[in-house]
Design a protein that fits this description.
Ribosomal Protein S8, Chain: A, domain 1; single chain; mainly alpha; 512 residues; 14 helices; three-stranded antiparallel beta sheet; three-stranded mixed beta sheet; GMP Synthetase, Chain A, domain 3
Length: 512
């Protein structure tokens, strides 16, 4: 009986478990259906969201593509406009060439007319000579040989006198014409040459993202900054300036190496003496390569070929040098273009003039600094690297250290003065500038008879006012020459200084 009860209880429990399992299964199936439906709804929402994002991305790409196409169309339009401008400029130059050709033809025609007049005068002179010979033979009764000898001497003296007179007139006319023509050529050369005024400083500013980097640059007990200064030869100034460091030095190459090295170190984040030494060495090699590339690119841009590789390297170094604040490479390129223009106007070789203009200041950028003027040193370097003699002479003579032996030499000298004398091209320290102006005025005041002096035009002209009762007109001319000579002997200045002596007589009375 007990066994039957146990079996019945177990059967009841089994039936309960089966019923519970059935209910649980139905619940799970219902829950699974709900989860599946919810997942499908989420999938549908995600699908719609992705489709919307894809449409937005498509519209964005389409907009960027249209923007690129518009930029390319604008660039193409600009190129077409530049081409049209060049065509107009070429047409204008062609018209100018035709006009000059007509002027040359007119001058040739005038010269032929003058030659015809000279031939006619010569024929008249021959007739007069024949007549005089006949008269001498009749009147003097001399022999033919004696008459010819006497007549020859007379005609020689007359011809010599007349020729000297004509020579003097021709020389005077040539001086006037040459002066006018020279001014015209110089003005046209300046107008046709576009120049950029590149002012260089002795300080470079390195900007920082925040002032916390300054401590890392200085390093423990200043070891990082000492290592950087010792390796580059540049003074690094870290003061209260927010987010900035000053790199000070008179060598622009060293300043550029220090700036690039510091940029690499800050970007990389690893700043310690060993890393600084490695970065400075790599940066120095990079700058050296850039120097060579700059020299090559400059020679190609100017159309100058067959330069020695050392000369190309020196041209590249000019990029990191300055003269009175004017970038030396820009100055040399400008002088080269000016020389080519002026040589063309004068009928000389423009390529040779351009070559001499580009190389005229290479004496300022040698690896070592010998005790020679830069013009003479540049001439010796050009001779060393097999440049032609007239180019070498033009380099050495552009500051009158050596005698000019070719027509290119004065062109280089003039174009160098034009480039350096452009307003704003060069800059001097304020103290030395003011000191030079004061020295100019005091120098002129030291002469007797001088009442007042004024240095004007940024020190390029000195006006000297003298008393009319103390200095005559002839003495005023001599005074101007003496002051000019003393300025040349005692002062250093860029370009030239014009000395104007003013002498005036005033008669003052009063009507009462």
């Amino acid at each position: 009986m007990e066994l039957f009860i146990v079996i019945a209880a177990l059967a009841g429990i089994g039936i309960g478990i089966a019923a519970s399992a059935t209910v649980l299964r139905k619940k799970l199936e219902k829950k699974s259906a709900e989860v599946l439906k919810e997942a499908e709804e989420k999938a549908e929402m995600i699908k719609k969201d992705k489709i919307l994002q894809a449409k937005e991305k498509f519209l964005q790409l389409k907009s960027e593509h249209e923007k690129v196409i518009q930029e390319r169309n604008n660039a193409l339009q600009k190129s077409e406009n530049r081409l049209k401008q060049r065509e107009a400029s070429f047409s204008q130059k062609q018209d100018e060439l035709q006009r000059k050709q007509k002027e040359v033809d007119s001058i040739r025609s005038n010269l032929n007319n003058q030659l015809d007049i000279v031939a006619k005068k010569q024929a008249e002179l021959d007739k007069a000579q024949q007549k005089q010979v006949e008269q001498l033979e009749t009147i003097s009764g001399l022999s033919a040989a004696e008459a010819k000898s006497q007549l020859a001497e007379t005609l020689k003296e007359e011809a010599r006198t007349e020729a000297q007179t004509q020579i003097d007139d021709i020389i005077e006319e040539a001086k006037m014409t040459a002066n006018r023509q020279a001014k015209k050529i110089v003005i046209e050369t300046i107008q046709r040459t576009a120049a950029e005024h590149a002012i260089e400083n002795t300080v470079s500013v390195f900007n920082l993202e925040n002032d916390e980097i300054k401590g890392r640059i200085i390093g423990r007990e200043g070891r990082n900054i000492r290592a950087l200064e010792n390796l580059t030869g540049v003074e690094i100034i870290i003061d209260d300036s927010p987010e900035a460091i000053l790199l000070s030095g008179f060598d622009p190459v060293r300043r550029e190496i220090a700036r690039l090295a510091l940029h690499k170190l800050v970007t990389d984040g690893r700043i310690h003496p060993a890393r600084i030494e490695e970065v400075v060495a790599k940066t120095s090699q990079q700058i050296e390569q850039e120097i060579i590339e700059t020299g090559k690119r400059t020679a190609i841009d100017l159309g100058i070929h067959n330069l020695h590789h050392e000369l190309i390297r020196m041209i590249g170094r000019m990029k990191y040098r300055s003269s009175y604040g004017q970038n030396l490479l820009q100055h040399s390129k400008e002088v080269a273009n000016l020389c080519a223009t002026m040589a063309t106007e004068l009928g000389l070789n423009p390529k040779k003039a351009k070559r001499a203009g580009l190389l005229h200041d290479i004496g300022k950028v040698p690896d070592n600094e010998p005790d020679l003027p830069h013009a003479v040193l540049g001439m010796k370097l050009a001779e060393k690297y097999k440049e032609k003699p007239d180019v070498c002479n033009a380099i050495g003579a552009h500051h009158d250290e050596v005698e000019m032996e070719s027509l290119i030499a004065p062109i280089v000298q003039v174009c160098d003065a034009i480039s350096g004398a452009r307003p704003g091209a060069r800059r001097e320290v304020v103290e030395s500038y003011i000191e030079r102006l004061n020295h100019l005025e005091e120098l002129a005041l030291s002469y007797p008879g001088v009442v007042k002096t004024y240095a004007i035009q940024a020190g390029r002209e000195l006006r000297v006012i003298v008393g009319a009762d103390k200095v005559s007109d002839n003495e005023a001319n001599k005074l101007s020459h003496d002051i000019t000579r003393q300025i040349q002997d005692e002062m250093t200045y860029p370009g030239q200084i014009k000395v104007t002596v003013i002498r005036e007589t005033r008669a003052v009375n009063y009507a009462k």
